[in-house]
Fold these 2 entries.
Entry 1:
Amino acid sequence: MNNSKDKYVIIKEYVMPTIVLVLICFVVTFSLVTTYKVTAPIIKATAEKSAEMARDQVLSGSGGFKLIASREQASVIPYEDNQTGDKLENINIKSNIIDIYKANNGIGYVITSVDQGYGGEIKVITGFSKNGLIQNVMLLEQKETPGLGTKAAKKDFTDKFIGQDNVESVDTISGATISSSAVKRAIAAALDQMSSIKEGGL
Amino acid sequence: MDQLDTKRKDKIGLKSIFMNGIIKENPVLVLLLGTCPTLAVTTSAVNGLGMGVSTMIVLIFSNVFISIFKNIIPSRVRIPAYIVIIAGFVTVVGFVVKAYAPGIDKALGIFLPLIVVNCIILGRAEMFASRMSVLESTFDGAGMGIGFTFALLLIGTTRELLGSGMIFGVAITSTLIEPMGIFLMPPGGFFVFGCMIALVNKIMKNKKITPKQEMGCAGCPSSASCNLLTDQEDLGKN
Amino acid sequence: MKEILIILMSVIIVDNFVLSKFLGICPFLGVSKKLDAAVGMSLAVTFVMIIATAVTYPIYKFLLVKYNLEYLETIVFILVIASLVQLVEIILKKYVPILQRSLGIYLPLITTNCAVLGVTLLNIKDEYTYIHSLVNSLGAGIGFLLAMVLFSGIRQRIEHNNIPLSFKGVPSILIAASIVALSFMGFGGVIEGMFV
C-alpha cells in the first residue's frame, strides 16, 4: 500500500513536471520554427535591400550589381560576363576584403573592406570606376569614439578620397589618428584588390 | 501573502494596476530592475524607444500566456517554464525587429536577446502573472512596459541631447555648442542614470511615497543577498 | 599565446564587462557592498561563465549550425545555463559542501545574470574559436571580479561620507561607477601596440 502511494508521489513530484516542461519546450520550439519560416525571407530581403542601397550610394548609375567574390564563399567564384566576355576566374580575394561586386553595366566595381580601428572593426565600402579611380567612400560599420573617431566617418573626410588612386595624399585627422588611419588602410586594401582586378585577376 | 493578495485584488482596479507600472513602481527608476539594458541602449532616444517597445511586447505576451497557463504549469518547474516561454517571445520579437527595423536591431545588438534575462519580465511573471487573471496581467504588463519605455526614453533623450546635440536624430544644439561625447559612452551612462534616480528619490521623498518592495525585488532571485532592499529601507526611515 | 593575452587584457581591462559592456549590472549594484560577498559572487559567476561557454559553444557549432537552427540560440543557451546552474548547485551540495555554503546563495541569481548569457552570445557573435571563447569567458569573469572588488572598496569608503540625501545609496554608486568607467576608458587603444 505504501509502495504504490510512494510511486504516486514520485510520479506527481518529479515525472509530471518534467513531462510538462518538455512539452512546453516542444511547443515553443515548434512555434519558433514556424515563425522563422515566415520571417526569414523578409529578413533576408531587408538585409539585401540595404546592402544594395549602400552599393548604389558609392557607385551610382550601375544598373545593379553582381557578386564576383566574397570572403565567405571561398576565395574564387568562377565568373564570366556574358556581354563583354570578361573572365575573372582567378580573382584572389585578399585579406581585409569582404566582398567584391561588379556593376551590371560594366562602369566599375564596389569593394567592401575592413580594418581595426580604435574601438573595433571599421567596415568601409568603396566604389571604383573601371580604371580603378575611387568614385565614393562610405563607412558601413564603426565603433569609434563619438565626436572624435567618428570624424573619420564624416563626408568631409571620406570625400577627400574621391578621384584618387592611392591614399597617400589624404592626411589623417588630428585627434582621430587611429580611426582615420584605419579608414585609410581599409581603402588602401580595396585599392590593392582593385589593381589586381585591373590586371586580369591575379 | 495570499491574504494580502486577495485583499489587494479587491481594492486594485485595472486602471491602478496600469498606472502603478508607470509611476509608483516604475521598474527602472523605482524598483531598479532591468538596469543593464537601461545603461547600454540609451545612447539615443530612438534606441531607448526601440528597446522599450520590444521589451513591452515580450512582457505583455509572456504575462498573458503565463497567466493563461498558470494552473497547468507545475510549481516545481515554473521558473524554467517561464524562461522557455519568455525566450520564445524574445526570439519572435527578434525576428520582427530584424525584418522591419534592421537599424534598431544593429543598435541594440546582443541586448535584444538579453531581454530574456531582464529581471522585470521574470519578476512580473513570478509575482503577478502567476497569480492574477489574464486581464489584470495584460494591464500589468502594459503598465510596466510603458513605465520601462518612459524611463528609457527619458534617459536616452538626455544622453542624446548632451552627447550629440540631437533628439531623435534632429539637431537641436549640435550646431550651437560642441556636444559632450562622454555622455554617449559608459561613464556618461552611469552618470545620467545616477542623477535620474537621485531626482526620483527627491520627488518621491517630497510626496512621501514609500516604494513597495515586495512586488519588485522578491521576483528577482537575488533578493536574499541583495542590499538594495536595505538601502531603500534606510532611505525610507530618513 | 599572444592572442590569448590580447583577449584577456582587452576583456578584463579595456572592454570590461561591467564598466564598458554594461553586463552584470544588477549583481554589481546589489552585491558589491561587502567584500566577501563580492568575491564570492564573482567567483561563482566566473565558474558558471566558463562551464556555460564550454557547453553552449559545441552545442551551437555541432547542433544548431548543422541543422540551420541558429535562431534557436537564445532559447537553447538560456535553458543550458539554467540547467547548468541547477546541476552545479546539486553537485556542490553533494561533493563540496563548503563551496555550496559560501557560493550557494548566489547561484540562482546567476541564471538571470545578463553577463553569463551575454558572454555565451558574444563568443558566437565575435566568432572566437573554442579555446579563445573559454579564455574570453575566463577574462570576463576576472573583469567582473575586478569591478566588484574595486567597488566594494569604494562603497565602504563612501558609506561614511556626507552624501546629499537624494543621492544616498544607488545614485552615489552609479556616479562612482561613472568615474571608474572613465578611468578604464584610458586603456582603450593600448592593446594594439602592447604585444607587438
Entry 2:
Amino acid sequence: MNTLIVRLKASFRWRTAWFWPLFCFMWLVYLVSTRWTIGAKLFLALLSLCVFPIIALSLNMSNLQNDLFGKPVSFCLPGYRRNLRTIIFVDALLQALFVPLFFCHLNLPVFKESGLLERCLVASGFVIAMMALALSGGLRFFLSRIAWALLVLLTFPLCILGYIVLVTAFEHPLLLWPVVIPVCVVYCVFVWRGLGDIERVKRAHRRLVLEAAEQCTHAGGGKTVLPEVEALFLSRMKRYGYTHTGRYIWGGLYRAFGPILSYWRWIFASLLGSVLVLGYAGNVVQELIFVALGSIAFIIHLPVTSDMLLPEGRRERYYSAVASACATMVIATAAAVAVAGLSTVFALFMPEIARYGLHYTGIRLETVYLACLLTPGLFAFELLAYRMPIFAKISVYAVTTLLVVAIIYLDSEVSVLPRSTGPVLFATVFVCGCAFFLLVLRRVCSKWCLVGGKGRI
Amino acid sequence: MLLEIDHHSGQPIYRQVIEQIRRQIMAGLLGEDSQLVSVRDLASQLNVNPMTISKAYSLLENEGLLERRRGVGLFVAKVAQDRKGRVKARLLEEAMVRAVTAAIQFGIPEKKAAEMLGGLYRKYDSKSRSDSND
Amino acid sequence: MIDANPIVQMNGLSKRFGKIQALDGTSLDIYPGRIIGLLGANGAGKSTLLRHIIGLYLPDSGQCTTFGCDAGKLGPEELGRIGYVHQEGDLLDWMKAGQLIRYVSTYYPNWNRGLEEKYIADYDISTDARVGSLSPGQRQKLAILLAIGFEPELLILDEPAAALDPVMRARFLDMLLQFIQDENRTIIISSHILSDIEKVVDHVVIMKAGRIVLDSDFDELRERFSRVRVSALSGELPSELPFANVLDSRRSNGEAILTVQNCSGEELQQQAESLNCRIDVQPLPLEDIYRIVVS
C-alpha cells in the first residue's frame, strides 16, 4: 500500500464516518422537500455546497494532525507532501459527484427547454462543487488560521452571494453558464498547479504543523472563563452551605455554562448573523434550524459523569444535572425568542431582493418552542451515549431524520406547521422527552458507573 | 540523636531505625535516661511514616532498651551490665562473621587474620586515645 | 498497630464490564494512618477498585463502605474528606489554572490557602495558563494540588506520578510523606513505578485479574523474602543445598544465589555454618517481590 492509498483510506475511517449520515440526512431532507419553493431548495443545495467542503476539509485537517502527532513516522513517508493535492482532489471528486443530483431536482423551467442545457447544468453543479472544495482545500494551506476561521464565518453570507449568482445563471443560462463553468475550471486548474509547487506546499505544511503543535502544547491560547462569569457563579455558590444542594447546583451550572457564557460576544455575533440569513431562508429552513438549536444539548456537558472528584454525591449530581438541563432549555428558548424578535425588527428594513426570490420574513414566534423540543431527548441520549456511544449516535440520526421527515409531511401548505395538531404533537414529544430524560438520569445517578463505562477498567 | 535512612538499601526503614538507635545506646552516644525525640518529630525529621517510627520504638521498648514514662515520653532504659554485654557481643559477632568468612575464603590463615585484627584494633584504639588526648 | 476502625471496608465486591470481570469477589479493609500501595498489571482492576471506594462505580454484588457510609450513597459530608487523582482525570480545560483552583476550593470548607500557595510556588504551577494548554506533567501537578488542598483524610492516587519527571516525582513522594505526618490521614496510591512506591508505602496490596493476591504489611513482606548469596568457604558447594522454601536458585561453581521465603536470618546463618559457607542476606526489591507474588 502506498502513502496515497493509506491517506485516502483515512478519509473514510470510522472516526470520520459520522460525516456520511449527516450527508445522507441532508440528502434525504432534500429529496422529500418536493413541495418546497425553488428558493428554499436552492438555498439548501447551496448550504450543503458550502458546508460540506468545510466539514470534509476540517476532517482532513484533523487526520493530518493525527498523522503528525499520533503517527509521526507516517509524516516522513515518501511523497507525503506530494500527494496532498491528490487527496484534496479525490475527496473533492467523491463529494462533488453528489452535488449535480441536487440540481437535477430543482425542476427549473430551463430544464424543460433544452436537453443540452440540462446536461450543462448537471455538469456545472459538478464543476461548482469542485471549485468550492478546491477553494477550501487550497486556501486552507495558504491562509493563516485566523484568515481561515474568518472564511468559515463568512460561509453563510457567501451562501447568499452564491445564491444570487446561481439564480442569475438560471435566469440567463446562455449568458452566464459559459462564464461560471470556465471560471470554476480555471480556478480548479490553478489550485491543482498551486498545490503542485512542492516548495510552497512544504512551507504551508510546515506552518500548519507549527500551528497545530502550538495548539497541542503550550502557548496558553484559547479562551478561558471571563472574570465576571466566574464571580457570578462563585458568589451564587457561596450563598449556600457547604453541604447544601444549592452549592452543587450552582457549581454544576458553572461547569455547564461557564465556557458558553464566556463566548457571549461570539454567540451574540452568530445570533445576529443567523438572524440576517434566516430571514431569507423561508419557513422550513427556519424551523429546521430551530429544531437543530436543540442540539446544543450536545455541547452542554451535564455535571453527572466526571472524573474530577468534587464532594458531590450521586444525589447532588442528579439535582445539578436537572438544573443544568432546565437552564439549557431556558437559554435555548431565550436565544430563539431573541432571534425571532430580532428578525421581526429586521423585517422592517431588510432589503427585498425580489428579483432573486429572496424575501425577508420575520420568524414567527410560534416557531420558538421548537428550540427546546429535542433538548430533553438529546440529554437522555447524551447520558446513554457514554455507555453506548455507537447506539446513541445512530439513534440521534434516526430521531432527527424522523422528526424532519415528520415536519415535512405534516406540512400541508407550503412549509407551515399544522396549527391544530402541531402544539399537541410537540407537547407530547417534549413531555415524553422530559420523562425519558428524568428516568435515564435517575437510573444513571442511582445505578450506573459515573465515569469511563465503556468497558474500560 | 542523628539517624539516617537509606531508601535504596532495601532494608525496612524500621529496622534501620532500630539498628541505629541500638548502636547508639550501646556506644553510649545515647546515655541512660536520655529522652528520645517524639515519634512525630522524628518522623517528620526523617520524612517517613510516623507508623514506622512508632513500630521501631515499640520494638525497642519490648527489647527492654527503651522505657515509656507515662505522660513524658520514651527514655533510654537502665539495662543490666551483663545484658548489655550480651547485646554488644551479638552486634560485634555479626560484624565479625563477615570478616572471618572473608578471611577463610581468601585463604588467610587464622593466625594472620587475628594479627590483622589486633593491628587494626590498636590502630583505631590508639587513634581515639590520641584524639581524646588532644 | 491496628487500633482504629477501618475507614474503608470492601466485602466481596464483584464488578463486570461486558466480558471483563474487573473485580472478582474482592474484600479489603483499609485502616487509617497508612500509605497503601496498590499494585497490579494494567487491567488488574486497580482503578476499578479505587473508583468503588468513592462511589463512582457501584458493585454488581458485594458491599463497599467508606467512612461508615455505603459508597454509592456518599454525600458532600464524606466526599469532602476524600481526595482523588486519576492519571488521565478530567479537569475543566476551559478554565485558567487559578480559576480552577478557586472553583474547586469553593466546595471545601477546610481549604488550606497556605498549602495552596506553598504548593503553587514549590511546583511552579502557572495559575494564568489555560488548563487545557498545560503539559501532562503540569496537569498532573494541578490535579494533585486540587486533591490535597483541602487536606483530605483519605487521599486516593491512581497513577499520580506517571507524567512527572524524576525530580518532581521525588518531591511529590516527599510531599506525601509530609502529608501523612498527621496520623489520621490515609493514602492509597496505585502505581506501576514500583521504585517510587517502595519509598513511601507501609502496606502493600497486589491485585491480579480482579482479585487481591496479597494484602500485607510492607515490612513483613520485605522480611518474608530475601535473596541469599551462598559462597563456599573452601572448594565447591555441596550439590544439594539444605535451605527450605527456596523459590529460585542460580548457581555456578562455588557460589549460589537463592531467593528464599519465610527464613529468618539466624536460621540461614546456622545452616551456613553447618555447610561451611559464607552467606550474604539481602532484602528483595519490591519489583522482584511483585514478580514472585504475581506469578
